[in-house]
């Protein structure tokens, strides 16, 4: 057997191809709303969290950005009025990134088009049983390769409570 025919090479290759194609469609749609893919991810992560907020360190862990990378993104989004920072009452060294009403409004403007892309190019390609199996498999792999992906949601990497992805 040729090494390039191995199921692992094929699976990872397909994952890359799907990610690249969906990311391109998403990026074009986000651009229509003056958001970058990273800004959309930050807004989504915060909107899905209790009180629409996460500690900056948890936000970094969830987005796989460095802490300085998250700081730069949050600075820019704060200047644009999409986020604000709030001091952590239990730790003066820590702060929360919090979605503003303007940030939630921007997210709500983007979501219908985003969901249409997901439905057409992802969910629409899978029956419910296949989707359940795919979600289970992706969560297992995600938890193995990126255990802090749900930081701030009661995982071992965060302290705050919140929903898992």
UniProtKB/TrEMBL annotation:
It holds the Pfam family MarR. Keywords: DNA-binding. SMART domains: HTH_MARR (SM00347). Transmembrane segments: none annotated. The keyword Cell membrane does not apply. One of its GO terms (biological process) is response to stress. Residues 8-143 form the HTH marR-type domain. InterPro entries: HTH_MarR-typ, MarR/SlyA-like, WH-like_DNA-bd_sf, WH_DNA-bd_sf. GO terms for molecular function: DNA binding; DNA-binding transcription factor activity. PANTHER family: MARR FAMILY REGULATORY PROTEIN, TRANSCRIPTIONAL REGULATOR, MARR FAMILY. This is DNA-binding transcriptional regulator, MarR family. It comes from Micromonospora avicenniae.
């Amino acid at each position: 057997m040729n090494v390039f025919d191995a199921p692992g090479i094929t699976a990872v290759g397909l994952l890359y191809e799907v990610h690249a194609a969906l990311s391109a469609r998403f990026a074009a749609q986000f651009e229509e709303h003056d958001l970058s893919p990273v800004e959309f991810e930050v807004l989504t992560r915060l909107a899905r969290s209790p009180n629409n907020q996460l500690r900056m360190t948890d936000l970094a862990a969830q987005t796989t950005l460095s802490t300085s990378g998250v700081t730069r993104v949050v600075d820019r989004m704060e200047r644009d009025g999409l986020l604000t920072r709030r001091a952590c009452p239990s730790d003066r060294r820590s702060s929360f990134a919090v979605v503003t009403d303007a940030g939630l409004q921007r997210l709500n403007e983007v979501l219908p088009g985003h969901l249409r892309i997901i439905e057409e190019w992802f969910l629409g390609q899978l029956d419910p049983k296949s989707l359940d199996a795919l979600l289970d498999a992706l969560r297992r792999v995600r938890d193995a390769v990126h255990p802090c992906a749900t930081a701030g949601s009661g995982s071992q990497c965060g302290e705050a409570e919140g929903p898992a992805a």
